[in-house]
Write a structure and sequence with these properties.
The protein is an all-beta fold and 146 residues long. It is 3% helix and 42% strand. It is built from 1 helix and 12 strands. The model has no long low-confidence stretch (mean pLDDT 85).
């Protein structure tokens, strides 16, 4: 998506500085040396939610839709129960699901993995499986497949 101009400034962009917009001002920060940012006032303009404002290559204030505002789909973070197990988790152990079974390992170095219980559900690789707060096996869609 192309950027759209908001205010034409024709500002000279120093290649040794970074430019950002904050609190209605233009911040000019040197890339090297650790010098503080120089605050330059901008003409007043209305900033709308869902847009990212920046200084474009021509030295003008421009905006683009925020990636989160462009995305029509939102991943659900709600987990679904796969199987009721009612597992009572003991302190000092890490519980996880592997190969259609609940496993546990004592927290610490080089501890053996212990089998706890088999689950009857088929494992779908596009989901992350875990033991929820009720001690049941649940799953949630992975954000990144693989």
């Amino acid at each position: 998506m192309a950027a759209e101009k908001v205010i034409e400034l024709g500002l000279y962009r120093d290649p040794n500085c970074l430019y950002s917009i904050a609190d209605g001002d233009l911040l000019k920060t040197p890339k090297l040396g650790g010098a503080p940012a120089e605050r330059l006032p901008l003409p007043p303009f209305l900033r709308e939610a869902g847009w990212i404002y920046f200084i474009d290559q021509d030295g003008d204030v421009a905006r683009m839709r925020s990636p989160s505002a462009r995305s029509p789909t939102v991943l659900s973070t709600v987990a679904e129960k796969v199987q009721r197990v009612g597992l009572q988790q003991e302190p000092g152990y890490l519980y996880f699901v592997r190969d259609a079974a609940v496993m546990r390992v004592k927290v610490g170095r080089d501890q053996p993995t212990e089998y706890v219980v088999k689950i009857d559900a088929s494992i779908d690789p596009s989901f992350a499986y875990f033991i929820d707060r009720d001690g049941d096996v649940s799953r949630s869609k992975k954000a990144i497949q693989g």
